[in-house]
Amino acid sequence: MTNKFEEKTIATTQIFNGKIINLQLDEVTLPNGETSKREIIRHPGGVGIIAVTDENKILFVEQYRKPLDKSLVEIPAGKLEPDEKPEVTAKRELEEETGYTTDKLELVTSFYTSPGFADELLYIYYTDKLVPIKEKMALDEDEFVELVELTLEEAEALMIENKIHDAKTVYAITYLQHLLKK
Amino acid sequence: MTNKFEEKTIATTQIFNGKIINLQLDEVTLPNGETSKREIIRHPGGVGIIAVTDENKILFVEQYRKPLDKSLVEIPAGKLEPDEKPEVTAKRELEEETGYTTDKLELVTSFYTSPGFADELLYIYYTDKLVPIKEKMALDEDEFVELVELTLEEAEALMIENKIHDAKTVYAITYLQHLLKK
């Protein structure tokens, strides 16, 4: 399959350049020759880590999400630094957010979170080879998270309560259900 | 669990109001008393439909995604209209994009696509009770999609090629793998 229904860019207007996202407005030619506008968020992309301890607990972090004005329980995750390989990001975020490290990260999948308006690509890793690190590493200065270790059953209950409620973490639960053939 | 690490809004600046997304910049008080800025995308939310035919084919649509400058194969999906119930959106988008309808939509899950910067919430439905409709309905005027019916094995192959590569569709494949206990 090719790039069916391709839309050629006529003009790009930069609207906003932020710490995390940029917003641009593209004027495009549609497949039928008409023109339209596309609102596009540029994001550096990120990682999420499905991490299972020796005691069969899954590592999560609780954190406040300002766009929702509430806190969620999510798998450890973070943004790519410029030119950083996703596996390096994954190891760093695991260490910073959970106090565990690993030498074995397996890439499970990757996906665009919302391809209609954003180019954010998330890489999802899996590890069940976790080693506690002695000194917990520093988080970003505006980052506040709390480690939560849960069984799969406890995580399923939080999903029903909508406390686990984001794409990468709901994906992680379903992946683990499938992995364990529950 | 409560709203741990809550961030109080000091001021909100509206940056952009678009057709699909709005962008605002919130100045917030962090849990440690410092202030920071949060870049927030407001989105109406949407639906995705996991639809399986009598012949055990899964319905997908191929469409061009300008933020990625390529086309993806995704489950049928669409945005909520103002005050529209997600189940109504799901039925409408199924009809518009695939030419099938249904009287039985089961809510599988819902998730925020990218809670770090956006409030977009997606509702995922499942149906295997599909009825072809006689006249295909009109798409939005700037929407061009092509129906693709695939077996689960064919869809898994497209996922490996990164032609299926967005959160809701990767979720759908894993959900179906789990449902069928593959």
Task: Describe this structure as you would to a colleague.
Two copies of one chain form a homodimer. Chain A has three helices and twelve strands. The first copy, chain A, has 182 residues and is of the alpha+beta class. Chain A has two domains: 8-42, no CATH class; 46-181, Nucleoside Triphosphate Pyrophosphohydrolase. In chain A, strand 9 and strand 10 (121-127) form a beta hairpin. In chain A, helix 2 packs across helix 3. At the A-B interface, strand 2, strand 3, strand 5, strand 6 and strand 9 of A face strand 2, strand 3, strand 5, strand 6 and strand 9 of B.
User: For the residues shown, what is the average pLDDT of chain A?
Assistant: 95
Most extensive interface: pair and counts? A-B, 75 and 76 residues
Main sheet of chain A: which strands, in order across?
A: 7-4-10-9
Query: Could you tell me the radius of gyration of chain A in angstroms?
Result: 19 Å
The count of helical stretches of chain A stands at 3
Q: Structural class per helix/strand content of chain A?
A: alpha+beta
Outline type of chain A: elongated
Total discrete domains of chain A: 2
**Assigned CATH class of the largest domain in chain A:** Alpha Beta
Name the CATH superfamily assignment of the largest domain in chain A: Nucleoside Triphosphate Pyrophosphohydrolase
What is the fold-level CATH name, i.e. the topology of the largest domain in chain A? Answer: Nucleoside Triphosphate Pyrophosphohydrolase
CATH-derived architecture of the largest domain in chain A: Alpha-Beta Complex
Measured by DSSP, the beta-strand proportion of chain A falls in: 35-45%
Helix content of chain A: 10-25%
Q: How far apart are the termini of chain A?
A: 35 Å
Tally of extended strands of chain A? 12
| Largest sheet properties of chain A | 4 strands, mixed
Order of helices and strands of chain A: EEEEEEEHEEEEEHH
- Contiguous low-pLDDT stretches of chain A (5 residues minimum) are none
Quaternary structure state of the chains depicted = homodimer
